[in-house]
Description:
A seven-stranded mixed β-sheet has the order 3-4-2-5-1-6-7, with helices on both faces. Helix 2 packs across helix 13. The chain has one domain: Rossmann fold (3-Layer(aba) Sandwich). The chain is an alpha/beta fold and 332 residues long. 35% of the residues lie in helices and 10% in strands.
Amino acid sequence: MICAPAMASQLGRWNNYAYRGDFKNGVTNMKIVAVTNIKGGVGKTTTAVNLAYLSAVGGQATLLWDLDPQGAATYTLRCDPIGHPSAKKLISGKRELPELLVPSGYERLDVLPSDFSNRNFDVHLSERKHPTERLLRMSRSLRDVYETLVLDCPAGISLLSENVLRAADAIVVPILPSPLSVRMLTQLQEFVIENDWSDLAVLPFFSMVDRRKSLHREMIDSAREQFPELLTTEVPYWSDIERMSLRRAPLPAYAPASAGGQVYAALWQEIESRIDGHRPGLPARADAVPHSPHVTADESATDDSASDLMEMDNPELVGGKGSEVESRAPRM
């Protein structure tokens, strides 16, 4: 199975892509949204899958690139890679990204599946010239087809994560209401400032929130004072969100009117508003709501078990920094 339920030939789908005629001269101002965190187990994959689906439902041709070697996003969307392409061949240019895309089965949403060789991404990146710019350059082949590229990133600080930060227009950072998660946000901000990535929108939000817990309430209140840029929307620690790993589908796809589905819809709307307001020359969407109301956890909806899907996020701390020759600012 390539990707249920769609089984179309990818080469033909690429050559006759239904959305090409919607864009000026076949070129789009594709925005790159990376879902990332230094810590694992915070709900990155859950977030990436739901946001990619909502982007597609909103009318944007969207690609979800699963960079995590564990392949949780690929699993959730029931996708398999085409020919198990190695990270080495991708980075060296022996395989092109368009060759590897598979349809998700949802309109306007495609997937670039994970491969276990992604665990060696850093090794192969370090062997290239300008190793911190490879991901940005590789993504250029997608810009005449997609309006949104969502990156599901492995945890950790690595050469790959440095590539992601350089390539992205925005990074969405799920954090837990805990001291270590808030400390991570400080480290991430310092790293962005150190590299002078002023055009990068950093969009943190609280994930797996249980407002019945006094520690969660205290950490959220304290962090909002320290980091006013925190998104207003909070994702609760709800069992219907955890069940995504069992349903193997985006929550807004099978339960759009549910409380969990509405939370992710509010989160995506807020993210779009922040991105549009951050990117020079782009007006904010007229229907965007900059501040969404807090959504608090309900006792009957909260589960004490850890999400299978969220646990698939696992830290991968690999060092390495490359040259910084090509500017991140306006990518065309």
